[in-house]
Structure formats: C-alpha cells, structure tokens
Amino acid sequence: MGDVLDYLGETRLELGPAQAAERKGNWRMARDADGIAWLVLDVPETGTNTVSEAVLRELDDRLAELEADRPKALVIRSAKPGGFSAGADIGSLSDMDPGAAEDLLRRGHAVLDRLEALECPTVAVVHGAALGAGFELALACDRRLALDGASFGFPEVRLGLHPGLGGTFRLTGLIAPDAAMTLMLTGKTAHTKKAKKLGIADEVTEERHVRAAVQAMAKSEASRDRGLRGIAFEIGTARSLAARRMRSQTEDKAPKAHYPAPHRLIDIWEEHGGDRKKMQEAEIASFAKLLETDAARNLIRAFFLRQTLKKAGAGDSGIARVHVVGAGEMGAEIAAWAAVQGKRVTLADVSTEALGRAVRTAGEVCKGAHLSSAETRDALDRMMPDPKGYGAGRADLVIEALPEDAELKRKVYAELAETMRADAILASNTSSLSLSDLATGVTGPQRFAALHFFNPVSKMQLVEVVGHDGTDGDTLDRLAAFCTEIDRLPARVADAPGFLVNRALVPYLMEALVLMEEGVPKEVIDRAALRFGMPMGPVTLADQVGLDICLDVAESLQGQLDKPLPEIPARLREMVEKGNTGKKAGQGFYDWSDGAPDPGDGDGDGPEDLTDRLILPLCDACVTCLRAEVARSADEIDGAMIFATGFAPFRGGPLHYAQDRGAEAVRERLEALAETHGPRFRPDAGWTRLT
After folding, report:
1. Which pTM value belongs to this model?
2. Which of 33, 107, 116, 673 is the most buried (most CB within 10 A)?
3. Short name of one Pfam family for this protein (predicted)?
4. Domain count, the chain
5. Known active-site residue 85
C-alpha cells in the first residue's frame, strides 16, 4: 500500500480556480463558474502559513474587492499541504511595546470583523492544523469544513498569552462556553472527530469531495444552536460559578504567579462573557499587557529556542529505512514513532513476546498521535517485527536500543558488521556509556554516533545527537536531519559523561534522594519543585525514568566529574535489586496504579534551602557543560533542558534563570551551600563567564 501511495504522490489540494491564479502578496483569488470566490492563503518562501500584519492587510484589500462585487460565496483555505495556518507571526509580536501591539490588534480585529460581516456565505476549508490566529481566521467565517485529520487549537497559553484576534468571544459564542474555555485554558487541540462533536467543524469530508461540499454549504445557512449550556452561561451568576471551578483547576496546573494568561482569560470571560463588544475590548487590552510579562517573554523565548534546535536538523537525512535492535520499552517506542513519522522500520529482538508487546505499543503510539484508522494501518504496515534481524542489511540507519551493558552492545555491533551496508549509520541509544569506548568495537567508526532519545519517545521532543572524535560531520548532519524528519528536536552535544541532559539532571535527582535520607518527605520535595515550576517533582521523575536507569547513570558519572556527586543512597540500590524500579514496575518511591503515582500524605515545607538545593546544582551542571563545550551555546543548553526535562519554561531555561536571578548571586549561594552541605555544591569556574 505504501509503495502505491509513494508512486501516486501526495493528494492534490482542491483550490478551485485559485490553483492557477497569480499570487498577489500572500493570497491567491479567483472565482469559479458558480460565482464562488476561492481565496487561498499561500505565504511565499515557507512551507507553513502564519498570520502576519501583511496577511491581514492584504485580506482587508481582498474583502473590499468582494464587497464591491459580491460573490455567491467565499471559500478560504491554505495552499500549503502541511496545514491551514500555524498561527500569528510571534517574532513580530515579541518586539512590540504594548501600545503598538494594541494598535496592531485593533486593526486585525477590524479585518476579521469585516470578514464576518461579508454579505455572502463564507466557508473555511481546513486541512491539517488551524492554530492560534489561523483558527481565529477560520472562526470569522460562517462555516468550517474540516478535512479528515484537521485540528483546531489555541496554543497561546504556552506562550504566556491568550487568543488575541477574537478567539475569546467567537469560540465561546460558537460552542458551549465551558468547552471553549477548556480548549483555550489548556492549549489542547481538538482533532477532527472532537471538533465536529464540539461544533467547531460543521462538516467533515475528504479532499476529493471538497468542491461538492463547498457548493452545498453555499446554498445552506449555518445552524448556530449552542444548546442549553450556551444560554445558561449568558447569566453572570452561572459564569461566576464556572469561573471559580476553572480558577481552581487552572491554579493546580498553571499557577497564577507563573502563568498569568489563563487566569486573565477567566477574568475576561466571567466579567464580560455576556457582552461580545466588551469582551473584544478586554481581550485586546489584556493581550497587549501580557506581552510585557516575564512569563510571556520567557515562553516566547522557549518558542524560539525550539526553532533554533529544529534548524540544527535542516536538510535531507537520506534515511528512509530504519532497523532498531532491541524491542524493550525504548526500542519499541523508537520504532513505533519512526514508523508513525513515515519511515520504514524493522524491529529485531530475540524475544517474540517483546516483539508482540512492541506491536501493541505501536498501536498506542498511533492512538496518542491521533491518527485516523487509515493512517494507523499504514503506520503499522511500515513497522515490521524482525526476529531474525534481516532488516539490518537494507537499513540506512541502525539504532541499537539495548540495556546499558557495554559488552552486550559490542557483541551486537560485531554481528551487525556482517550484515549492515557499508554506507549505513549505526547509532546507539546509550544514556550513560562512553561513546568513544563503544566505538572501539565498531566497524566504520566514522559512521557511528549516539541518538539518545528520552522516555517516552512519543512524548519527549528532544534527542541528543552525540559524536565521538572519529565521527564524521556528514553522519552527524544526517542524524540531526533524521530527528527533524521524525518531528523531534536534535541537540548536538559532545561525548562527555552523561552527555548534557543527564549530566545536569543527575545532581538534581540525587539531591532529592539525599533529602529523603535526611527525613524530608518525598511529597514535600516534589511539591517544592512543582512550586518552582517543574512539570513533576524529582522523586516522581526518578520513578518515571526508572530507578534502575537512574542508578546506572549515577554510577557511570561517579568518579568521572570534577567534583563529587552525592553518595548513592543504599535505599536506591536495594529498591533496584528488589525490582521496585518505579512506574514500569508499579512500585518505586511511590506506588503506581493506572499510570499515576499515589500522592502520599507527606506535609510541611521542608528546610529553608530545599528549592536551592534541588535547582542550583542543575544550573551549576549546565554552566559546567557550557564551559566544557559539551553543547555549543547557552541557548542550546536552555532549549535542551526545557524540551527534554520540562525545566520551568516560563523561566527561559536554567542558564537564563540564573542570569535573571544574578549569576554572581547564584555563585555566592552555591558557595554558602557548599559550606553547609559539602563540596558537591562548589560552584563551577564557568560562573565567571556569566557574571
């Protein structure tokens, strides 16, 4: 099936007569024989549409033309195969002062109001993602026709903002307001079926039926029945009750002190939800003010750090076929994710049971990626269980995902040398072993490197791309490009103990275990990290990663660093020996059931220096990695830590946080901690570079 689809090529988008129309600026427009105008967004020199000031200004000009010569209907869609629109041009917004931003927003609102008021049926045809301002453009149309696989969302809260081009009042006016608020407050995406169920998408169809569906919509009126819930929330008392519940739920996941945007959104809806005009004014003013907040600045910074990492993987990898050795938890997820992203994958393991579990894992990964039934079928067809390892001979890339046993890995490398193509790349998923040492057992070491994925692969965005002294540049370039092709962010790092992420994370995790040994309840330790802004506490994270893996990495780092790590607690070794390795075993420091830890009952605030004891060793390790050139820049380190560990993104990354706090002040604090708790807190010499 896949070969046939490859031969036929991508489905051609139905753009009506605009397919052949000349592009003027960012738009193409033409009318068909039925008098329907097709207005197609096609931002030049990019594969993704964004909604910029120029896009809106040109849309205004086109609307003026349509008002002067009214069509039977207007269709708006994207010419980009990848989707409708990725949202606003964040770069232009981030540099604006509140006054300029408010002026730009008012002009943008006027354009979308004009679209909404156009005296003919308007239909947004959405394939792929309609996000942020792109979603707001679609909401200003009378109807939305979704192609199978389409999705709608407002990710602005992840940038420290909320919708700013009418999304707050148009979405709450279109569907049940509480459902609309949930989408905006969480930043989650409504995929095709959910979008239709909620009432965002009026109809769902396939590409070949677009023209007929548009013609049908042009002849019918949109139904706007929001039901009893929509009517109920027009009453201020009902909104206040719902807002109280929303604030409580939002505070748990996005505290107001760190993430003001969702809380301001709740305020706007509670106060003005019954008055569209006032809600529009409040939305514009609030959005402009949020651009000034530290949270927005740092979250926008995180957005650009992501773009920087992605650019490191530009180009064509030349990798179409992947062979994964080892169908354990990591190998199964690597194979499944690569198959979901379009690679042909063979997965080898001596255990047929492990291969069976891997196929089930692949099904779950497809479900989590919101693939349609056809897409799931195709992804599973691309992943072939391969107990004899025949796929190694055809692969462009072989990924070894075996346990952290150097002798076992070398044995497998010797076997692979008999079957791998001479030009194929071999990559290890090692998290703790020296790549240079492993390279001594490899034929063609210039094509040997590490691809260090993080667990779970289908959720964690970062991959460390690691070379040793003998790895050639082309191999690293191809591996970084491969990461980008499978929708992952490559961080190019040096072959140093723990690479980058584990080198920084281990002191954080180990200090949490030391605090437990001192009698601080695990819940108190985790709560301190959560209050700082980490996505989960270090004890929960240790359970999630796997206590056996934590122990392996900690042991591998002991004695290899310039200064000592905390002593590995005997309790950790005992738990691993008993098989209580955390989430995957159902028992670690926490009891786990249904994928979640028992919250426990530890209370209190812990010692005064608790948070600094956790966070500052992590920051210090990042300074060490910068000084030792484990990574190429401070930005790359901050990006890697945000996207691999979830380091409080509203703080902009560990090095950015240290500089905001004052590098000299942090260095002095580390010296004070070293006097109290020992030399593991001694500040690295690299702090002088940041001061």
Report:
1. 0.88
2. 673
3. ECH_1
4. 3
5. no
